Amino acid sequence: MDQLLQHLRSLGFTEMESKIMVELAAIGPSSGYEVAKRLGLSRSNVYAALQRLTQQGYLRCGDGEPSRYSVLEPGELSRMISGRVEASLRYVESEMPRGGPDARTFYNVEGERNVLDTLVRRLDGAVQEIVVDVWREEAALLRGELERAEERGVRLLWAIGGEAAAPAALPVWPPLGGGYGAEGAGPGRRFSFVIDRSWCMLGMRQEDGSAQAVVTEHRVLVELLLSHFMQELVLFGLQQDMGAELEERYGPRYRSIAEPYIGGDQ
Q1: Which burial class, exposed, middle or buried, applies to 80 when counting CB atoms under 10 A from its CB (0-12, 13-18, 19+)?
Q2: pTM for this structure?
């Protein structure tokens, strides 16, 4: 129930309007007095909300005394809301001023839901290419969107981490001075996306599901992520073709190469 009310509020209905619509959908045609009594709300406020919802077309008011109100069937209600939202979005897209400077700024996105929503919107708009560098856990969250992109003809380039990750993966840099930030928080799992070589997101997701990311269309970060992705693929290719020789010379996972730069105690 709480989740349904939350979604109705996100569509622009007030808390009272949301409760009234759910109540009418559950109980059926009712008078304003009955609705106010069941919800424990002020009759004057309920009557005002019923009038607004009726004028907007979401409720029907039957003849007779007292007037009895009923909400549209779920399918009809969702089509009405969808049509109005789409009409508003089309208007905003066509009329929103476009004269501002193209600053190519960086901005932060916090919270798993916000990060995923931002990614889904961009993945759905991808035209040519998506470069994905994630762990298996995060890849699973976006499987549907990525599959639909492939079906549209968008090229997907993958680098997947996890238990079966390639041994040529780059090392994790240890923190300077100890600690990764918040007390008790580990380094998490890094992820990055580059879409159409013009937009990118770089972020981190923790075991508890919390996430934060930086998003930009700045060319420098886009190119850095693409270079890092290419480097991982090159290292993976070298491991596949020359793994035995490299391990014989440098040791397992080639730690002797990285230790002078990142320290041996990880």
Answers
A1: middle
A2: 0.58
